[in-house]
Design a protein that fits this description.
Strand order of the largest sheet: 1-4-5-6-13-12-9-8
Order of helices and strands: HHHEEEEEEEHEEEEEEHE
Distance between the termini: 27 Å
Strand content: 15-25%
Structural class: alpha+beta
Length: about 300
């Protein structure tokens, strides 16, 4: 589900702290070399592409990051960076974060039936059980889709926001840059109530749920059939944002979202099941089965 725009966004997010014009030039040069075709609008945090595999895009994006980091390093003053330039006698080794392995190998983004790591980084790690064939995702990245598509007319997928930061529910999902609240939702009830209050969402009444042994609530929201995303701020229709910029923005008009939120030891974890009226009933049943299978580590 990757698009060139999404790879650009992911790579630029790595460069936000110490951005340099030279880094941007390296990134743009690499991304310009990637093939691209018009695709459906999608909105997971990371996606696959029918043109190039996720693995290849990530390799190329990583190369851009490495090159940009090298250029940035060369531009740094040799006296040190930061507020504490006290010299040390020798550089100390630092450990790199590693991803926990999936219980089942997942070549080229295809997840065979079985148990897989859904999220394994900051926040609340979790696993899911895939009940049948045709599911795609990158281990540990927090999203999976059925038949490698999440857009209209029949896509289906899950994306999780695993307690990685405060949750801010936009007052207006179309005019979201100007309607982000000053304070985050601090409880399950606060979060669900804020979603229910969004205009044009045709929200259902919240219902109680239990996921992985933790209690929470679920609410179903709709993106209006006549929504024009290009009329929204930055061309995105958004529900909420977690932390600084992990936002849930939507694929297409008519999308339905079952939003599950649970409190896991004081952290609000959001599980978003996205689908459409044209999504096959069998795919929807599998989607809910995957969400029900979540185990928090």
């Amino acid at each position: 589900m990757s698009t060139q725009r999404d790879v650009t966004r992911i790579v630029r997010s790595w460069l936000k702290v110490d951005a340099h014009e030279s880094a941007d030039r390296v990134l743009d040069a690499v991304l310009d070399a990637l093939p691209a075709t018009p695709q459906r609008r999608v909105s997971w945090l990371a996606r696959r592409s029918p043109v190039m595999s996720t693995t290849m895009r990530i390799v190329l994006a990583a190369a851009a990051v490495a090159a940009a980091a090298f250029i940035g390093y060369q531009a740094l003053p040799r006296s040190g960076v930061g507020t504490n330039p006290t010299p040390t006698s020798s550089p100390s080794a630092t450990s790199s974060p590693t991803l926990a392995p999936t219980a089942t190998a997942a070549p080229a983004g295809l997840l065979p039936p079985g148990t897989h790591v859904l999220w394994d980084s900051a926040g609340v790690p979790m696993t899911v059980t895939i009940p049948g064939p045709g599911w795609y995702g990158e281990p540990g990245n927090g999203f999976i889709t059925k038949d490698d598509t999440s857009g209209a007319p029949d896509g289906a997928g899950i994306v999780v926001f695993p307690g990685i930061g405060d949750l801010f529910v936009y007052g207006d999902p179309c005019q979201w840059t100007s309607s982000r609240p000053d304070t985050p939702a601090s409880t399950v009830d606060d979060f669900v109530a804020a979603l229910a209050a969004q205009p044009s969402r045709d929200a259902t009444q919240p219902v109680g749920i239990t996921v992985g042994g933790y209690a929470g609530k679920s609410i179903t929201l709709h993106v209006p059939d006549d929504a024009v995303f290009d009329d929204c701020q930055r061309g995105e229709f958004r529900s909420f944002v977690a932390g600084v910029d992990a936002a849930r923005y939507h694929q297409d008009p008519g999308q339905i979202d079952e939003v599950w939120v649970v409190d896991v030891n004081g952290k609000l974890v959001v599980i978003d099941l996205g689908y459409f009226p044209g999504t096959p009933a069998a795919d929807l049943a599998e989607l809910r089965s995957v969400a029900d299978s979540i185990v928090f580590e």
